[in-house]
Every structure is written in C-alpha cells, then in structure tokens.
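Troubleshooting: if your tokenizer reports a length mismatch, compare your output against this known-good record of 235 residues.
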Amino acid sequence: MAALDRSIVLGMPIFDGLGPEQLDEVLAQARSVRLPKGGAAFEQDREADSFFVLLHGNLQVVKLTPAGQQVVIRYVAPGEMFGIAVQMGRPTYPATATAVVDSVMLVWPSTAWPGLVARCPSLAASALQTVGSRLNDAHVRVVEMSTEDVERRVAHALLRLVQQAGRKLERGIEIDFPITRQDVAEMTGTTLHTVSRILSAWEDQGLVEGGRQRIVVLDPHRLFGLAERKGASAR
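Known-good structure output:
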C-alpha cells in the first residue's frame, strides 16, 4: 500500500503539533477509506477496533437508547478525529457513525494508539481536547433540554450546524450536508410535528428556507436573538 501524502492533512488542527517526520510516521499506519452515503464507519456496541479522522464529507453520529429511541448526538466535519473510544478507555463504540454524503476518512487500528502517542505526545493532547470539547457540547445540550423551550433548542441546533458546516450563499447560510426535519427533531428531543411547525413558521417569517433535506438560514442574527431570548414557553 502506497504511503499517504502528508498534504492531505495539512491545516488540520489535530496534526498541528507534529513535525514532518512525525506526521509521516502517523500517516504510515493509516489507510484511506471511502465511505458511501449511508455507510457506517462504526456501529454502536461493536468492538472499538479503529479510530478515524474525516478528510471529506460529513457523518451523523446516532445513539439508540435502551427504549429504542434514536438520538442524533452530533455531526462530524472534515478535519475531526472521531471513533475515539479507545482513547476514552471504552472497549466498544457508544454510538453509530453514518455518512450523510459520500465521504473519505483515514483509519487507524486502535492497537496503534499507544505507540503513536508515545512517539507523538501532541496527538494525545489533541485527542484530550476533542473529548473535552464534546463533553462541553453534551453539557450545553443537557442544560438546553432541561431549561429551554423547544423553539430555542431548535434555534440553537441550527446555529451550531451553521457554525460547523455553513456555506455562504447570497441569500443566507446553507447547512452544507443533507439534513431533514426528523434529524432536527432527534437532535433537540422533540417530535417531527413540532419541528415542522416551528420551521414552517420561521419560513413564513423569513428566518429560514427549507427544502428536501436542506435548510438555509436566511437571517442568522434574528435566529441568534431568538435562541438567546429569556423566558421559556411550553415544551
């Protein structure tokens, strides 16, 4: 198998602390994998035998609760490390990661991790920062679920997606991967009916523009104001 060229990861913050030789060593243990839309990088409760960095595309991370409810945990954007169960001391993956568009990722065997961090300590720091960031996001979402009405939760969810994967258009900012109203419902702990009602109202107000598996935020400043307004209404 031909060695991967370091140019494919230049500019990715997770590798910023590595020198050229270290980067070559890290990439020598990786392989590039194409994941078609709908394909799973890994599945919940399966052995955590690999970890990943996304090069291109987007992935949706979903957790199935014991009651059978599907919850969208987050989306993975290019440049992110994911599937890091081994770095957290877990033998299995806590969720399922599925490509929402055709994607390309780097894959390392989990057994390579101890040797890599021994020779490249900055990788461990990057992984720790990734875990900390996701833990903070989880805390924010728990607070939102506990204290905010559903309209504010939906507004916050859309703003996070715009920040993570927004593509500027003349009329606004498009979330740059396919996303449905059901996905938004599963992100915000509510129902498809409620999300549809909210987004339809926002379309009438000129806040967003919807379509088949797409959402464009037309007025992010007004949406931010709605997300940050004080007071709560019925969930």
